[in-house]
Design brief:
GO terms for molecular function: chloromuconate cycloisomerase activity; magnesium ion binding; manganese ion binding; muconate cycloisomerase activity; racemase and epimerase activity. The chain is an alpha/beta fold. The protein is built from 13 helices and 13 strands. The chain folds into two domains: about 120 residues, Enolase-like, domain 1; about 230 residues, TIM Barrel (Alpha-Beta Barrel), CATH 3.20.20. About 40% of the residues lie in helices and about 20% in strands. The protein binds [(2S)-5-oxo-2,5-dihydrofuran-2-yl]acetic acid and manganese (II) ion.
Length: about 400
């Protein structure tokens, strides 16, 4: 029996960092990203890090950064302070007892608990999660400037620098034909050595999706992500049955139960796994296992997290036996500022999984202080929250 280590204090910090360019999705346009960074202080001096980040405030899902901080400060932290930091599952069961939903808030706490445990045991998070199978993950880049020529130039520079060779295009905001022309132009310019996928972020109804998927297949697109509303699983199954290219579920997946439903009903070829959307590391790992057992392909998704959430995702995805569609762990590269003392390493069209214990990262405290919303020298305003951005 190991000694118990008291959870002393938990901080949830809102951090607003500008993006390198506007990031245009069908549901929002990001000009800055807001992260909730959690610091979990243990009695032995170890501080675990966690992150929960949303897209466009409340435009993408049902939790906002401000709501996540409130849930942690007011409900979840008081519940687990005083508990044993060596027992993440027990602490999270106590959090579960006082909050029915709030997957993102819980996920940030669970991440911080596992980071602290890994540091204490001298083990990378990937080993705590069952063991890493790879040290390098393929990472795609999202072209979402809102302009076809800019997107092509951006993609060409990424390929030349060997940073990315798979691209995801955000569509669904414009008329279908304009979107398909945009995709076709990018595919023509980049050629057969790159893979082009699209993310509709639920913008289409089913008939539009049926036509759109066929047109996109003709344009050389390889995959369509969440074309229709997240609650229309039967529609996803129908689209999948008629499509000649891969159909991926994203927003519809809120944890293992949804992964099971999608897998058993044949409602997607690929599942996008996101730690916070799943409700935490253990839930996200379970989604991977369900997909594997069902023979459904996996993709390592992002909520455009900063480096803390991205490092956690890299550890988790490194343990998946198969990651047929790669990952999109590029969130830190979309930010103007480096929040880590030592940046995550991106090379050879992907990223290195951090090596050190826990998440294997350390924050740059000066940068965090500069960009925290309650900091003395705050320079960035929270992103505007108008619908559609
Ligand atoms: O996939 C999403 O829906 C959200 C996110 C991930 C990459 C990106 O550009 O946006
Ligand atoms: Mn998506």
């Amino acid at each position: 029996m190991t000694d118990s280590v008291r959870i002393e204090r938990i901080e949830a910090i809102l951090v607003d960092v500008p993006t390198i360019r506007p990031h245009v999705l069908s549901v929002a346009t990001l000009k800055a990203q807001t992260m909730v960074i959690v610091r979990l202080y243990c009695a032995d001096g170890i501080i675990g890090l966690g992150e929960a980040t949303t897209i466009g405030g409340l435009a993408y899902g049902e939790e906002s950064p401000e709501g996540i901080k409130l849930a942690i400060d007011t409900y979840l932290a008081p519940q687990i302070i005083g508990m044993d930091a060596n027992r993440p599952a027990k602490a999270m069961a106590a959090a579960q007892a006082v909050a029915v939903g709030n997957r993102f808030a819980k996920s940030a706490l669970e991440m911080a608990l596992f980071d602290a445990l890994g540091i204490r045991r001298g083990l990378p998070l990937s080993e705590l999660l069952g063991g890493r199978l790879r040290d390098h993950l393929p990472v795609l880049w999202t072209l979402a400037s809102g302009d076809t020529k800019t997107d092509i130039a951006e993609a060409e520079a990424m390929v030349a620098a060997r940073r990315h060779k798979t691209f995801k295009l955000k569509i669904g905001k414009r008329p279908l034909k304009d979107d398909v022309d945009h995709v076709a132009a990018i595919k023509r310019a980049l050629g057969d050595d790159v893979s082009i996928r699209v993310d509709v972020n639920q913008a289409w109804d089913e008939p539009t999706a049926k036509r759109g998927i066929a047109m996109l297949a003709d344009a050389g697109c390889d995959l369509v992500e969440q074309p229709i509303a997240l609650n229309n699983r039967a529609g996803m199954a129908r689209l999948r049955a008629s499509a000649t290219i891969a159909i991926m579920a994203d927003e519809a997946l809120h944890g293992p139960t949804d992964a099971y439903a999608f897998a058993s009903e044949g409602a997607a070829d690929v599942l996008a796994v996101k730690i916070s959307q799943a409700g935490g590391l253990r839930a996200a790992r379970a989604m991977g296992e369900i997909a594997d057992a069902a023979g459904v392909a996996l993709y390592g998704g992002t909520m455009l997290e900063g480096p803390v959430g991205t490092a956690a995702a890299a550890h988790l995805f490194s343990t998946f036996p198969s990651l047929a569609f790669g990952t999109e762990q590029f969130g830190p590269l979309l930010l103007t500022e480096e929040l880590l003392a030592e940046p995550l390493s991106y090379c050879d069209f992907g990223m290195a999984v951090p090596e050190g214990p826990g998440l294997g990262i350390a924050l740059d405290d000066a940068t965090l202080t500069r960009f925290r919303r309650d900091g003395p020298n705050r320079t960035v305003r929270p992103a505007p929250r108008a619908a559609g951005g």
